[in-house]
Design a protein that fits this description.
The protein is α+β, with helices and mostly antiparallel strands and 177 residues long. It has helices at residues 3-28, 34-54, 60-84, 104-110, 139-149, 169-176, and strands at residues 88-96, 114-122, 125-135, 154-158.
């Protein structure tokens, strides 16, 4: 058993899949310059790792270590993307109308979030609806702030694909170029 070869196979596939996961997320978020550059490194590493395993198929442990590098690479790639927190989120917070006196929209705006306020009708009466735009890196602190002010809030979030107009447009354009 060649430990050095097994370690090399693991590291090569781990690196490939980590880059693959990051490149996929960059592509989905529209990073048109960096995603192709990452893909060049990714495919080079992929060909190297695959050839190492295919040239040594006589040892099934090579394939197992290759698969292990794949699994660990995905996990680490996801953690890196979470750390980078690329992009923006749109959060809808639906609040009981009795929370109007909290002035949550102004509090959120004071913290730098883009907020649009409207009112709707829910099962138990009128509701305040807040549409909040935030960088993903601030996602957890946004949820915490909403829950501190109104623990009964119903919160939904998603990632917008396209942002145009509003006072946030200039900020978004600067960050994406």
């Amino acid at each position: 058993m060649d430990i050095k070869m097994l370690l090399t196979i693991f590291v090569v596939n781990f690196s490939y899949i980590t880059l693959n996961t990051i490149r996929f997320m960059l592509t989905m978020k529209g990073y048109r310059l960096i995603a192709p550059l990452v893909s060049m490194a990714e495919i080079t590493i992929y060909v190297l790792g695959l050839s190492m395993v295919l040239n040594r198929l006589d040892n099934p442990l090579n394939l197992v270590v290759y698969a292990l590098g794949y699994a660990v690479g995905i996990s680490v790639g996801i953690k890196i993307e979470d750390y980078l927190a690329l992009g923006y989120i749109m959060v809808t917070a639906i609040l009981p109308s009795s929370t109007e006196q909290l002035n949550l929209p102004e509090i959120l705006r004071d913290h730098g979030y883009g907020v649009t306020q409207s009112f709707g009708e829910g099962r138990e009466g009128e509701r305040m609806i807040l549409e909040i735009l935030s960088p993903r890196k601030n996602e957890r602190s946004l949820y915490k702030l909403i829950n501190e002010k109104e623990p009964r809030a119903f919160i939904i979030s998603y990632e917008p694909k396209f942002i145009s107009g509003g006072f946030w447009t200039k900020k978004v354009r600067k960050r994406n170029t």
